[in-house]
Design goal:
alpha+beta
Length: 328
């Protein structure tokens, strides 16, 4: 009797057995206890759009696998690190496409946004945000068409102040925040897209999300705005005003933030990102980057993009290219 051949299971219905969680930590504090961590849910590009929207509305984020061709992402990675190779950031005799850090160097000196690089490196950072190759990458048709369908927009507007962040192993990572308070001057909601430019493991400086934290983010923003009512309109929308931390972040200690602000009820979620993946999240979803402790010495490179529906009341301050001294 011939064996019955089962129909293949759609990719979006496959349940993957989670592997062991890594030790997670941020810039300061202790490792986050394993009981307070978890894996993010990957979503196959073949998943029905209705299900993708449902996951985004429920979780505050959706991690889309293989949205951009892998080689296109690595072309962008190679382009970026070719610009910085003269600074000595790369391990000798390695390819800019790999982006391997020279561990004999001071990672803080070679850090990108948020580090303490030399003036010449700051000029390179400014220039990297304006190259035709990067601006073209931001218009990738796979990315833009997905966003229009996902959001139900006829046309989208990306704020010009897209950001490229490289993070060397054992340097500083992005602190805990939600995006809304950086774009307070816009009245409309926006969508953030986070694109890892190269493979990025859970301990390689990728984003980690505080599970189901959109409500907490909204509550915190309401509290900040209430405290700032007496400030001038310009000061109220400033992410660095008197009621915010001087570096604009909520905290740099993920263990403490989860225990105190989230009262130990929410987990930090992480993923092993691959080139071509894109994570979308809402303006109030609380997130940070893990400390880059990549076992291969890879420099974490990623880009942060914000999108509005065309014609929406956006934050005009962000309609100019990123510069290290723009005060935003």
């Amino acid at each position: 009797m011939a064996a019955t051949q089962l129909a293949p299971v759609p990719a979006h219905e496959i349940v993957f057995s989670p592997k062991q969680l890594p030790n997670l930590r941020s810039n300061r504090g202790k490792n986050v206890d394993h009981s307070s961590t978890g894996w993010m849910k990957p979503t196959a590009l073949s998943t029905p759009m209705e299900e993708i929207r449902k996951r985004f509305d429920t979780d505050g984020y959706v991690w889309i696998k293989e949205l951009i061709p892998r080689e296109d992402v690595y072309d962008m990675r190679e382009h970026y690190f070719k610009q910085f190779a003269p600074t000595g950031i790369l391990l000798p005799n390695t390819s800019p496409r790999d982006g391997i850090f020279d561990s004999a160097k001071d990672p803080l000196v070679h850090q990108g946004i948020g580090g303490v690089p030399e003036e010449a490196t700051l000029e390179l950072l400014d220039a990297a945000h304006a190259t035709p190759e990067y601006r073209k990458f931001l218009k990738h048709p796979n990315l833009r068409s997905f966003i229009r369908e996902f959001m139900g927009w006829e046309k989208e507007t990306m704020v010009k102040r897209a950001m490229l962040r490289h993070n060397c192993p054992n340097s500083l990572s992005t602190g805990i925040h939600y995006d809304q308070y950086f774009l307070r001057a816009g009245e409309a909601d926006f969508l953030t897209a986070w694109i890892p430019i190269g493979d990025c493991s859970a301990t390689g400086g990728g984003l980690m999300y505080l599970e189901n934290s959109s409500t907490l983010g909204k509550t915190m923003e309401e509290d900040f705005l209430r405290m700032a009512e007496h400030l001038s309109p310009q000061e109220r929308v400033d992410a660095f005003n008197a009621y915010m931390n001087k570096d604009g972040f909520l905290c740099h200690d993920a263990e403490e933030f989860g225990r105190v602000q989230a009262k130990g009820k929410l987990r930090w979620l992480v993923g092993d990102y691959e080139a071509g993946d894109v994570v979308f999240h809402n303006p109030y979803m609380i997130h940070a980057a893990t400390k880059n402790e990549d076992e291969f010495g890879r420099i974490r490179l990623a880009s942060d993009l914000r999108f509005y529906e065309e014609g929406a009341a956006l934050d005009e301050r962000w309609m100019k290219l990123w510069r290290h001294d723009d005060g935003l």
